[in-house]
Amino acid sequence: MSKTNFEFLDALSQIARDKGISVDTLLDALANALVAAYKRRPDAAEEAVVTIDPDSGEIRVYGQELNEEGEVVREWDDTPDDFGRIAAQTAKQVILQRIREVERDMKYEEYAGREGDIVTGIVQQTDNRYTLLDLGKVEALLPQAEQVSYERYEHGARLKAYIVEVRKTTKGPQIVVSRTHPGLIKRLFELEVPEIGSGVVEIKAAAREPGHRTKIAVWSNDPNVDPVGACVGARGSRVRMVTNELRGERVDVVPFSDDPVELIQNALAPARVREVRLDEETGTATVIVSDFQLSLAIGKEGQNARLAARLTGWRIDIKSETQLAEEEAGGYGDQEWAEGEWIEDESGELVWKPAEGGEAMSAEEWSHQAVDTAEPAAAEPAAAEPAAAEVAAAEVAAAEVAQHDGSAEEPAEAGVAKEAEA
Q: What residues have CB less than 8 Å from 93, skipping those under 6 apart?
C-alpha cells in the first residue's frame, strides 16, 4: 500500500466514524462517481466498473463488453495513467455529497413514523405565514393554520408542539407541527400524569376549541384509581401544568362512560342535567335542565354544548324545564302535517298545503285537526278559554267570506294569512 492510498483510506475511515457512515457506503458511492468520471474520457469503454480495494486503497477501472442479454463476455483493465488525480478530485466531491445525503436520511429516519408525538423546540423565526422551531438537528415548521390565533411566539422561547406530518425533501426532512391539534392535549397529559403513561388511565375522547376551552373524557382500568383525580392532581397541580403550557386555555376533565346518557351528563359539566332523551335514528340527545342551569349548560356562545357534542358524538339539544312544558302544552306543534303553507285553491279559498304532500285542508278543518290532536294536558287550559280556537276559525272564515264578496281590502287579507300561519 502506497503512502497516498494509506492516507486516503485513513481519512475515509475518520470521516465515516465522525459522521456515523460505514466505510463500505462511502467506497460504493466513490466507485459509482469514478465510473461517471471515466466515461467522460474520449477513449472510454461503453461499459465499465470501478473497484476500490478496502485494504490497499488501490483503484482499478475495468472496461466491459456485454452481449444482447446484458452478460459480460469480455473484461479488461482500462485504468488510465492519470486516474489517481481524477480519483482524488472526485473523491472529495462525492464524499461531501454522500455525507450530506446520509445525514439527511438519518434525520428523516429519526423523525419518520413519529407523527402524533410531541416535541419541544426553540422559536427561531416568526412571520405571518409560519414559525420555525429549532429541534436540535432539524427545524420544525409551525404553519399559521396550526397556530392558536392569540398566541405570540417570541424569539428564543421554548415551545411544545404536536407532530402532524414528516415529509422527505431534497433538503432534508420537513417536520410540520401544530399547536391546535387535540392530540397535543393528550400528549401533554401523558407527560404530566404517570398513570396515563403506564396505561392505567386512558383518555377516551377529547374535544378542543384552541385557545379557549378543552374537554377530555378519561377512563380508569383500575377500580382503585380515580381517573379524574389522577389527571387533575393534588390541588389541580397536574392539570395546571397543562393549562400553563397552553397559555391559559381552560381544560375540563370528565369521567368517561359506556352509557351515552351518563356520558352526555358528564360532558355537560359543570351544568347539572335533569334528564336525557335519546333518539337513536337521528343521533340526537334532548337534554333537560333546570331553568337556572340553562345558560350554564349551553355555555358562552354555545361553547359548552358544542364541546359536549364533539366529545360524545351526539347532536345535543338543550331545553329548560319551562321550555319543555311549553312545547308539550302545544300538543300539535311537532306534528309532521303542521309543516306547510297557506295557498289559494282554484275557487280562491285559503287552504293549508302540507309540505310533505297530501290533500289540502280548509282553515276550519285545520283548526279542528289541531284541537283534536292536542294532548289532554293542553286541553285543560283550552276549557277555561273555549273561544280561543273557535275565534281563530271564525276569523279565518270571516276572511274567506270577505274575500269572496270583495269587501275585504288587501291589508286585511295579509292579516288573515299571517293569523293563519301563526
A: 33
- Choose the final residue of a domain: 60, 82, 111: 111
* Rounded-to-integer distance, Cα 185 and Cα 178, Å: 11
Q: Which of 366, 365, 369, 364 is nearest to 398 (CA)?
A: 364
Q: How many CA atoms lie within 13 A of 412 on its CB side?
A: 13
- Write down which residue in 178, 208, 230 finishes a domain: 178
Domain assignment present for residue 242? The answer is no
Answer left, alpha or beta for residue 318, where phi above 0 means left and psi between -120 and 50 means alpha.
beta
Can you tell me the distance from the alpha carbon of 11 to that of 389, in angstroms, rounded to the nearest whole number?
103
Name the CA dihedral angle for 217, 222, 223, 224, rounded to a multiple of 10 degrees: -110
Q: What is the mean pLDDT of residues 398-410?
A: 42
Please tell me the distance from the alpha carbon of residue 256 to that of residue 135, in angstroms, as a whole number. Answer: 35
Asked if 385 and 362 sit in the same domain, the reply is yes
Say how many domains are in the chain. Answer: 4
Domain containing residue 395: 339-421
**CA–CA gap between residue 167 and residue 88 (Å, rounded):** 35
Query: 216 near 252, Cβ under 8 Å?
Result: yes
With CA atoms as reference, report the closest residue to 312 among 282, 279, 283.
283
> Domain of 65: which CATH number?
3.30.1480.10
pLDDT exceeds 50 at position 396: no
Pairing type for strands 315-320 and 284-289 reads: parallel
Order the strands of the 273-279 sheet from edge to edge: 273-279, 284-289, 315-320
Same domain, 39 and 123: no
Residue with cell 494509506: 6
In a domain? residue 194? no
Of 386, 396, 393, 402, whose CA–CA distance to 416 is shortest?
Answer: 396
321 and 367 both lie in a single domain: no
Closest CA to 314 of 349, 342, 273, 356: 273
How much is the pLDDT for 181?
A: 93
| Same-domain check for residues 11 and 100 | yes
- Return the C-alpha cell found at 61: 477501472
* pLDDT tens-digit readout, 320-366: 999 989 888 865 444 444 567 767 777 767 777 776 677 777 766 76
